[in-house]
UniProtKB/TrEMBL annotation:
Family matches, as SUPFAM superfamilies: Nucleotide cyclase, PYP-like sensor domain (PAS domain)
Domain GGDEF: 727-858
InterPro entries xrefs: Biofilm_reg_signaling, GGDEF_dom, Nucleotide_cyclase, PAC, PAS, PAS-assoc_C, PAS-like_dom_sf, PAS_4
Organism name: Pseudodesulfovibrio methanolicus
Name used for this protein in its record: PAS domain S-box protein
Classification via SMART domains: GGDEF, PAC, PAS
Start and end residues of each PAS domain: 193-264, 449-495, 573-643
Gene3D superfamilies: 3.30.70.270, PAS domain (3.30.450.20)
Length: 858
């Protein structure tokens, strides 16, 4: 061996101490010993490296250096020192044992000649070559290397750093191998456990996510990927809220997750809200969340489990709407309806049944239906007929008398049907009852008078006919058959509507009968069996019962076709229009089309307008026409668009009264001058009826607010106008708090009074353009056009405060109530009014959860 210079121990010791002082818990020992090799062993006397030039070559070896040598030899971490040619110069015993080299003592003393790394540890040499160590610019590396030995596989974390002498010359490499076999095995076991958990999560039906403390996705199962349409790699590492939650809900959901993660929600939190699939579709999901913590209890993330309830929620909403519709129909039916148990006990009764049996619903519920029958024999008959129909899987239809509260017996048509569940089991029975007392009375009256009229039927030349109130022919005489060319069996049981030429004549006839009770001299056109028409003049009246109520219709008619034709010929042969003009019952005016001066008026016009004819001949049309010029032009355009031959105007009478009229006008030549000939019909009553029908069709009967259909119709128009002209629009949903308790405590009449009081109060607080409607039950909505969310919230607060201060007097009781409200506004992505109302409804639901009697804006 060559003589080597000994480095003074004190500088080296100081270096070791200084380096060791930096070693703390958690530091990587491999890094520590790599640094040790670079800073200390580079000057070791037995390392084969040159000592610093300032060392004395003649200085004998210092025994204190053996302490550092001992430290190097005692290291349990394998350490190798390579020269620049990748030959091993020095190894500690741990490295000798790992490589299987011989002469451990020689290696330990440093008496061994350098050996190529490939001979001692070819697995290490190939790994270092794979990292490109020694190539230009690559002076260090750190890699994990597996080693297969007789007793199994071991894993090392290899740290290689450049070694240099005290002149900073490249003099080789320091290689430190840290045994990480236990850690690798632990990671394998952990990966196996993770795979088992992942397999379990992939087969469950729920969507499962794990989020880290920052809200990013750490893990997602296959169910979630399938339901939401994402690949796993598209979700991992992404912010869960930003990726899946709709934009308008993100802040709220992020707040909820924060509350769960921060421990402010003690138990497992369960919420239902929407998420968005990859294709942009929204799914309603019921979520459960749980905090993930370390062994020390520190939160590190969150576990989310979600069940897709989109279809379930849609089914529930459809069922709720259907139930509401069925209940409304049940209550509104004019026929009595009883819902019975399979044991024939009354479960429910509609208002018509209460009126029929003169008992309240509370008195009827729970009572055996046998108590409504005349006798036990009648009830047995009822059961037998019902069972026979049920066995044949049919509905039972029969006539059987019943009795009222005070024992009064009345004839009744009954319909009995089974209510069955999805499994075919019988759930109950529906009993529909119609009081046919009037029909029986009418039949009896007609039967008693049949003989009296039989002789008249057979002798008179005029047609005679009796019908029920629905128009079904009950009786005709021979003259009727002769005039209409039918046999008697062909007419009896036929509806009289088939004998009219036009629906308008039929409606006019019925309206006159209902209004006046009788018709005299009404001319109509009848259709005969061969399809030809005849003009008839009819007289008819209502047949009344003992209570002075109409139960049938009776009338006569004669054929005046020839007379009408003769009159037509006469009118056509007349040279002047005067006779027709003077004697016609229709209101007629003759005017100058240029000046609008009234030239002439017939007596019917005199009677209608209240002016003498002489006065009317001095007047102008503008004096009786109540519409201004713009309104006139508007009506003319509307008439042209609708293809009408008449105008609908408002005329002013001499008394100042306004009447709605239909004006049929056309040009006519009178004594060489062109005139405007107008026939005028008073349609005031008809228009009032039309407006009343429109009001009934669009207004909630109880509260007077817009009904659900009208509210949605008007709301759709306002939403489209808002989007078209970029105008703000706010929607408020309001719901009475604890309304069921009001009904249960004070009765449904009190609940109805509360609803009417709320509607009246809200209507007085809104503007004219605002839309207010009742959507159902105790739920109402308001649409505020050209109102932003701030102004709309202020309006909602004003409504809430006002309603909270109301007191409803119900008998001796005073009822107060509060409302909860949700407020939102139309947004760029909204397409329908339903979308806006859904958001307002969610805000309303949030107000309910937060304690009620409050306004929450979305």
């Amino acid at each position: 061996m060559k003589n080597r210079r000994i480095i003074p121990e004190e500088p080296l010791r100081n270096r070791v101490r200084e380096h060791a002082a930096r070693l703390r818990d958690g530091d990587d020992p491999v890094e520590f010993w790599a640094a040790f090799c670079e800073e200390v062993l580079a000057g070791h006397p037995e390392s084969g490296r040159a000592a610093p030039p300032e060392a004395d070559a003649d200085c004998p070896p210092d025994p204190r250096t053996s302490r550092l040598h001992t430290l190097f030899l005692s290291l349990r971490t394998p350490v190798l020192l390579l020269n620049a040619d990748f030959a091993v110069e020095v190894m500690n015993p741990a490295a000798v044992e790992l490589t299987g080299a011989r002469d451990m003592e020689a290696w330990s003393r440093g008496d061994h000649d350098p050996v190529p790394l490939g001979e001692l540890a070819p697995w290490l040499e190939s790994a270092l070559e794979g990292e490109g160590l020694g190539a230009e610019g690559v002076e260090s590396c750190r890699i994990d290397v597996p080693v297969v030995q007789r007793h199994g596989e071991r894993h090392f974390n290899v740290a290689v750093s450049l070694a240099a002498d005290f002149s900073d010359r490249h003099n080789g490499y320091a290689v430190v191998l840290d045994d990480i076999t236990a850690r690798v095995e632990g990671e394998r076991q952990l990966a196996g456990e993770r795979n088992r958990v992942a397999h379990y999560l992939d087969v469950v039906g729920s969507m499962v996510f794990t989020l880290n403390a920052a809200g990013k996705v750490d893990m997602v199962n296959r169910t979630a990927c399938r339901v939401l349409g994402y690949a796993e790699e598209e979700l991992l590492g992404r912010d869960w809220v930003d990726t899946l939650v709709p934009l308008l809900q993100r802040d709220e959901i992020r707040d909820c997750l924060y509350l769960v993660l921060s421990g402010q929600v003690e138990e497992e939190d369960e919420r239902t809200f929407q998420v968005t699939t990859r294709e942009g579709f929204k799914r309603m999901v019921q979520w459960q969340s749980q905090v993930l913590t370390t062994e020390g209890g520190l939160p590190v993330g969150m576990l989310l489990s979600g069940t897709d309830i989109t279809e379930q929620r849609a089914i529930e909403e459809a069922l709720a709407e259907k139930e509401l519709w069925l209940r409304s129909t049940f209550v509104a039916l004019g026929e009595a309806v009883l819902i019975l148990t399979p044991e024939m006990t009354i479960l429910d009764a509609n208002p018509a049944a209460e009126a029929m049996f003169e008992r309240t619903q509370a008195e009827l519920q729970g009572e055996p239906v046998s108590g409504l029958h005349v006798s036990a024999g009648h009830y047995d008959d009822f059961l037998a007929r019902s069972k026979a129909a049920f066995d044949a899987e049919e509905r039972a239809l029969f006539e059987l008398p019943l009795k009222r509260r005070k024992g009064e017996i009345f004839p009744a048509d009954q319909s009995v049907s089974l209510i069955k569940g999805d499994d075919g089991a019988t759930l109950g029975v529906v009993n529909v009852i119609r009081d046919i007392s009037d029909r029986k009375y009418a039949e009896a009256e007609l039967k008693r008078s049949e003989e009296k009229f039989r002789r008249i039927f057979e002798t008179i030349e005029e047609g005679y006919m009796v019908t029920d109130l629905e128009g079904t022919v009950l009786m005709v005489n021979p003259a009727t058959c002769r005039l209409l060319q039918y046999e008697e069996p062909e007419l009896v049981g036929r509806n009289i509507d088939t004998l009219y030429k036009g629906a308008g004549e039929r409606m006019a006839f019925r309206e006159t009968l209902r209004g006046k009770g009788a018709v005299r001299g009404l001319q109509m056109t009848a259709r005969r069996k061969d399809g030809t028409f005849i003009v008839i003049e009819t007289n008819a009246h209502q047949v009344l019962n003992n209570q002075n109520e109409p139960v049938a219709l009776e009338g006569t008619f004669r054929d005046i076709t020839r007379r009408i034709e003769a009159e037509k010929v006469l009118r056509e042969s007349e040279k002047q229009y005067r006779a027709f003009f003077e004697n016609n019952h229709a209101i007629m005016l003759l005017s100058d089309p240029k000046s609008e001066r009234i030239i002439d008026a017939n007596p019917a016009a005199e009677d209608f307008y209240g002016y003498p004819v002489e006065v009317m001949r001095t007047m102008n049309l503008s004096q009786i026409n109540a519409l201004d010029r713009d309104a006139m032009f508007t009506e003319m355009r509307r008439s042209m668009d609708e293809g009408r031959t008449y105008f609908i105007l408002r005329h002013r009478l001499a008394s100042g009264e306004m009447r709605d009229v239909e004006v049929y006008s056309g040009p006519i030549m009178v004594q060489g001058a062109q005139r405007l000939y107008s026939v005028i019909h008073d349609v005031t009553k008809r228009i009032e009826l039309e407006q009343e029908m429109k009001l009934l069709a669009t207004t909630d009967a109880l509260t007077g607010a817009n009904n659900r259909h009208q509210f949605f119709s008007l709301g759709a128009v306002e939403v489209q106008r808002s989007k078209r002209y970029d105008l703000p629009l706010t929607v408020i949903m309001l719901d009475i708090d604890y309304f069921k308790s009001i009904n249960d405590t004070y009765g449904h009449a009190a609940g109805d009074q509360v609803l009417k009081t709320l509607s009246a109060s809200v209507s007085t607080l809104l503007r004219g353009p605002d839309i207010f409607g009742r959507l159902g039950g105790e739920e109402f909505a308001v649409i505020l056009p050209q109102t932003d969310i701030g102004e709309g919230t202020a309006v909602a607060e004003r409504l809430r405060s006002t309603l909270a201060g109301l007191a409803v007097e119900v008998g001796a009781e005073t009822v107060t109530f509060t409302v909860s409200m949700g407020v939102t506004q139309v947004r760029a992505g909204d397409q329908t009014v339903e979308e806006v109302l859904n958001r307002a409804d969610e805000a309303l639901y949030k107000a309910k959860r937060m304690g009620r009697n409050r306004v929450v804006r979305d």
